[in-house]
């Protein structure tokens, strides 16, 4: 049995530079990962099966076209059929929330399938499969702090501090395609040069404005996170609606988590750290 973590992805900065002819957008983003997320388990079986467990599992149940089974099928199309598998996705991350849940699950499935069949983790064919599954899947396959360009698939590693971070989602699912479609097509410039923290602090998320227009609850989340004692940076991740708050001090992060949970008991809140 192979157990593979599927950590949440953050965009510490996300600069949208141009709309492409293929409908996608040219990005410059600072990807980071946290130490918590979903989990994919793969076990040998007589017939293929796929089950979803966990607190956010119900939202996905009955979805025939999960990214996990698509990743499994794409892996087999390249590396051969092999054995049947019982796959379980333990879903802890909110769905359609800007922290790459589905992409992380697909990447974890590819890593697990590779481990199970003796394919090297750095086999370039895995990256090709990942890019075909979704723009964030290559970054999730590598799973470390990186600058991403193009659709997000041109990746360059960068060192980052393992800082405490609080993730907060107001319980509103946001469509990535709808948020990108709301971008005002104004290029506000590239990422800054320097270390990860410099890039993050000097950066922005260009999808924040269109996401806030679609989901005004994001305004409430950011207003709360920005005023927490000790916060270094509060920003939306990806196309939202999840926002993050970075702290230098774990005690400040813990206090902020308690404040948010008390103020908004219905929101999803995860106290974690940059991986
Ligand atoms: O690649 P993925 O399927 O995750 O993208 C979902 C949607 O997000 C795309 O259909 C597209 O509308 C939008 N997108 C984009 N530019 C990117 C990544 C995603 O326009 N670089």
Question: Nutshell version of this structure?
Answer:
By secondary structure, this protein is α+β, with helices and mostly antiparallel strands. 33% of the residues lie in helices and 30% in strands.
Describe the structure.
The chain has 9 helices and 10 strands. It has helices at residues 67-79, 101-117, 124-133, 137-142, 176-181, 196-202, 208-214, 217-226, 250-263, and strands at 2-19, 25-45, 49-53, 84-90, 146-150, 154-157, 164-169, 231-236, 243-247, 268-273. It folds into 2 domains: 2-157, Ribosomal Protein S5, domain 2; 164-273, GHMP kinase, C-terminal domain (Alpha-Beta Plaits, 2-Layer Sandwich), CATH 3.30.70. Strands 1, 2, 3, 4, 5 and 6 form a 6-stranded mixed β-sheet that branches. It has 275 residues and is α+β, with helices and mostly antiparallel strands. Bound molecules: cytidine-5'-monophosphate (C5P). Residues 24-25, 27, 134-136, 151-152, 176-177, 180 line the site of cytidine-5'-monophosphate (C5P). Cytidine-5'-monophosphate binds at residues 24-25, 27, 134-136, 151-152, 176-177, 180.
């Amino acid at each position: 049995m192979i157990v593979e973590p599927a950590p949440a992805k953050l965009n510490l900065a996300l600069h949208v530079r141009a709309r492409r002819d293929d409908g996608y957008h040219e990005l410059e983003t600072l990807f980071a990962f946290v130490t918590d997320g979903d989990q994919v388990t793969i076990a040998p079986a007589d017939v293929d099966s796929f089950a979803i467990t966990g607190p956010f599992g119900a939202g996905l149940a009955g979805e025939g076209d999960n990214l996990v089974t698509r990743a499994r099928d794409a892996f087999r199309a390249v590396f051969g059929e092999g054995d049947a598998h019982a796959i379980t996705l333990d879903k802890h991350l909110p769905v359609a929330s800007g922290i790459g849940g589905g992409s992380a699950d697909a990447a974890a499935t590819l890593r697990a399938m590779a481990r199970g069949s003796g394919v090297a983790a750095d086999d370039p064919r895995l990256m090709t499969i990942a890019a075909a599954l979704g723009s964030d899947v290559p970054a999730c396959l590598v799973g470390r702090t990186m600058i991403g360009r193009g659709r997000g698939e041109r990746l360059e590693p960068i060192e980052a501090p393992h800082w405490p971070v609080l993730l907060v989602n107001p319980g509103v699912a946001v469509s990535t395609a709808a948020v990108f479609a709301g971008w005002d097509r104004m290029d506000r410039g590239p990422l800054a040069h320097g270390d990860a923290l410099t890039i993050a602090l000097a950066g922005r998320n260009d999808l924040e404005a269109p996401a806030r227009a679609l989901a005004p609850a994001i305004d409430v989340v950011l207003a709360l996170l920005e005023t927490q004692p000790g916060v270094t940076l509060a920003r939306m991740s990806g196309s939202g609606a999840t926002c993050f708050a970075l702290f230098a001090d774990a005690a400040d992060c813990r206090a902020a988590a308690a404040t948010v949970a008390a103020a908004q008991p219905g929101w999803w809140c995860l106290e974690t750290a940059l991986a």
